[in-house]
Amino acid sequence: MAANETTNALAELVRDNEKEILPEWLELQKRAGSLQTGRITEAELSQQSAEFLHLLRSGLAQGGGEVASSAYAPAREFLSNLSRSRALQGFSPTETATFVFSLKQPLFNSLNRDRRLAPAELARATWAFSILLDELGLLTFESFQKSREEVILRQQREITELSTPVVKLWDGILALPVIGTLDSERTQVVMENLLQHVVDDSAEIAIIDITGVPTVDTLTAQHLLKTVSAARLMGADCIISGIRPQIAQTIVHLGVELNVISKATLADAFAVALRRTNRAVTKVKSANGEDAKAKVASAEKGE
Amino acid sequence: MPTTRTDRLDIRSSDDVVKVRQQTRTMAVEAGLSLVDQTKIITAASELARNTLDYGGGGEICLEVIHDGSRRGLRLTFEDRGPGIADLAQAMRDGFTTGSGLGLGLGGAKRLSNEFSIESKLGIGTKVTIARWKA
Hints:
heterodimer, A: Globin-like, 2 domains, rod-shaped, B: Heat Shock Protein 90, five-stranded antiparallel β-sheet, globular
């Protein structure tokens, strides 16, 4: 078969000219800036290059006409691993694909140096090499992309798991520090979580802190209001805290009526909550007369 | 009016609404808007982007940093090819909604912007343009 002959000839060519191809290839990769960022060392690069050249040669020797054939399985696997590790090291897709594409020139040069080849053979060999390297180059792209996607997927999962915790500030006082946007499905989870905690802790007051919410639009406001109403039905009053000046002005312009007690900071809201539950924060004097740290005196009035 | 930078984004899902907010923030900073003005136009953009998605069935936004003499500002144009709005005056009225929202989005967006214009043709689509100038 002609294709087999061609690949065999190519395998021989790579074997015979390895001494020239490898340094030339390394030089091109260096010139393309593969080492500049310092993410891999020269030793690593030359080791990777030598290994890939060997795998490519054995693929050719086994008569692999197409990259998808089993002859190139080791070469494909090597490239996928290389692309994955480079994607994680922060290489750009171009830098990663350059690894394969920069091999073209040294291979073509060695074909040209080979005087034994007739023009027709030379053209066929060049074409075969070109196709092969293009396909391998695309493969690096694909693996690179795939590993990036894996990273994105993992981060997405982490974000979903980053559920906003409901924290207990004091007996009957809960706080929910909301971070991020409040118009996604996550909102539903966050709010249900709060209502469940209201039941579990038989909370009287729930403070929803929106310091970490960048934009409050009508949908966000609606979510907040719904949660407040639901909490109220369950016997807990809500205080909204962390309303920054720009957010306050925006809410006014939007025309949203937040019929809720709101405070600028979580500390203010906590103070209100303590007052509501007949508690106060007082400074206590320590034994030697100096002011000790402020402590919450849970002196419940009345009874 | 000369524009120094133009950007277009598709609005096809609720993730795109988040992108619209982020891009509006970036360009509002570029236009030199103050923090309050930034927050206002971002909120207005969020309202209109969600309208485009929910009532217009998706569309696109065009963001432009604009110059008028020494003034700088940000102009946003939302366009959809949805069913259109039958009664604009009614749609602009606070508290009116055909959906399940508060009915404050359009009116709120108008109050949050310096310039506001809306065109809508039944069966053809809706186009809303707002601008916020550096105070």
